[in-house]
Amino acid sequence: MAYHSGMTDSLEDMIACPKCDALHKVPRLDAGAQARCVRCGTVLMAPREGAMTRIVMLSVTALVLMIAAVFFPFLELSVQGLDRKSSVFDAVLAFSDGLMLPLSFAVAALIVVLPITRFVALIYVFAPMALGWAPAAHARAAFRLAEHIRPWAMAEVFIIGVAVALVKVAGLAQVTLGPAFWAFVGLVIITVLKDNFMCRVTVWQTLNARSPS
Amino acid sequence: MSGDGMANAERAQPVLTARAAGLVGCAECGHVHPLGTQTCTVCGSRLVSRDMASLQRVWAWLFAGMVVYIPANVYPMLRTSTFGKTSESTIVGGVFELMEHGSYGVAFIVFFASVVIPVSKFIAIAYLAWRVQRGKPGTASHFHMYEVVEFIGRWSMIDVFVVAILSALVQLDFVATIHPGIAAVSFALSVAFTMISANSFDPRLIWDAPEGQKV
Questions:
Q1: B131: closest CA of chain A, how far (Å)
Q2: For residue A80, is it within any domain?
Q3: How many CB atoms lie within 10 A of CB A154?
Q4: Scanning every residue of chain B, which has its alpha carbon at the shortest distance from the alpha carbon of A9?
Q5: How many angstroms away from the CA of B74 is the closest CA of chain A?
Q6: What residues of chain B lie within 8 A of the CB of A161, using their CB?
Q7: Does residue A73 sit in the same domain as residue A173?
Q8: CB-CB: which of A5, A21, A107 is closest to B164?
Q9: Which residues of A touch B19 (CB under 8 A)?
Q10: In the predicted model, is pLDDT for residue B4 greater than 50?
Q11: Nearest to A86 among B168, B176, B188 (CB)
């Protein structure tokens, strides 16, 4: 509901849209309902039943899949009796000679390190709350970190890159998909599911409400 | 400009902003504080009613991104050697190669991710920043432009990942080897710089003008 100047509420009852600064009165929402900004349509609140438990579960699953995705063979290439297995780890090391070394680090960060950091941070923030405890120390800093990393965790972009690469080598050699490929696909689906469960403003309000002050 | 006409139509529903109410809203968590508060009590973020300095960061990163986009297109992205013959291909060259193979769909994806998205991002960010500086009224369509730019930027990284995967996979000694070219580095930098540029933009600035307030 849009805020009108005639209302007299304390600051706790108000919320400003992070994207357009429109003032709103904090609505009382049932689980499953959604509140959007009247001006720009940004989702302001989206409380869901058991959301925290689900985020923790999905993050743990994603972490396990990530470990599988990194170390199992990702793609296997065979041409004229020659065989080449490659893992995500090899893809990261592709740029490791000379000038390209910084790019190697960047690719490692984008497809492995940052997604893992994000999963760990989210588990750290939500696991204690899902169990009904007070948030862990520095939970706020951890969640802020997770939100800052969000655009830079590019696992799903990487999967599309793999698809394009497959088409490019298809004429050259026969390519077999390894177990790590499917682990990575699963990882992407779980990441998307998890992000759908998370509403930033709702999380901050919950964190605030549950923190001992 | 057509956008200005729409602004009048959408102004029919006036909205009270936190700034107009003498408050400052947190850009991270939406919590409202009295004007002059430095850090958000809920999430610990720095509080700024309108981050005008953000425009300088936006322009700086945008120019950096545009500059490194040039070598990304001029220099080769991939060096392929098959049976002793070495060929180099640039971003656009790679697209044509895919089309020759008949993979029009994939050629389209690569072209879209490595040419259409970066170029339209440069234009969109510059246009939005220019509007804000001129104090032009912003509308929902400008905000959606910003949202799309912010969302889509990371997808340009596709080509860098393709190069990484190909270079890792295609190492078959004499038969075929693929090595990354220097353009991969400048293209990755270009995508990263424009992402930082878009992330620096304070979207609240887009809306300000219709209310006719200046800070």
A1: 16
A2: yes
A3: 23
A4: B32
A5: 17
A6: 157-162, 164-165
A7: yes
A8: A107
A9: 21
A10: no
A11: B168
Q: Examine the domain organization and report whether A116 and A24 are in the same domain.
A: no
Measured CA to CA, the distance from residue B82 to residue B88 in angstroms comes to 11
In a domain, A2, yes or no: no
Residues A96, A189 within the same domain: yes
Same-domain check for residues A77 and A179 = yes
Residue of A nearest to B17 (CA): A22
Q: Which of B61, B28, B54 is nearest to B208 (CA)?
A: B54
- CB of B119 within 8 Å of a chain A CB? The answer is no
Residue numbers of the domain that contains A37: 11-45
Q: Where in chain B is the domain with CATH 1.20.140?
A: 51-211
A41 and A56 co-located in one domain: no
Q: What is the pLDDT of residue B64?
A: 96
Please state the rounded mean pLDDT for residues A13-27.
85
Q: Tell me the whole-structure pTM to 2 decimals.
A: 0.84
Taking a contact as any Cβ pair under 8 Å apart, which residues of chain B between 12 and 71 contact chain A?
A: 13, 15-19, 21, 23-34, 42-45, 49
CA–CA separation, B143 vs B7, rounded Å? 12
For chain B, the average pLDDT equals 83
Pairwise CB contact (< 8 Å): A110 & B168: no
- b/e for B142-158, b at 16 or more Cβ within 10 A? bbebbeebbebbbbbbb
A204 with A112, same domain: the answer is yes
Report the C-alpha dihedral over residues A120, A126, A127, A130, rounded to 10 degrees.
-160
Estimate the crossing angle of helix B158-169 against helix B104-111, to 10 degrees. Answer: 120
How many domains does chain A fold into?
Answer: 2
Chain A within 8 Å of B155 (Cβ-Cβ)? yes
CATH of domain B51-211: 1.20.140
CB-based contacts of A164, cutoff 8 Å, min separation 6:
B106, B109, B110, B158, B159, B162
pLDDT one-digit tens code per residue, B78-125:
888 877 788 888 889 888 888 888 888 888 888 988 899 999 999 999
**ipTM higher than the 0.85 cut:** no
Q: Is B182 on the interface with A (CB under 8 A)?
A: yes
Between chains, do A164 and B106 touch, taking CB under 8 Å as contact? yes
Give CA separation, A191 vs A57, A63, A117, B19, in Å. 11, 10, 13, 36
Query: A101 and A185: one domain?
Result: yes
Number of Cβ within a 10 Å radius of residue A64: 15
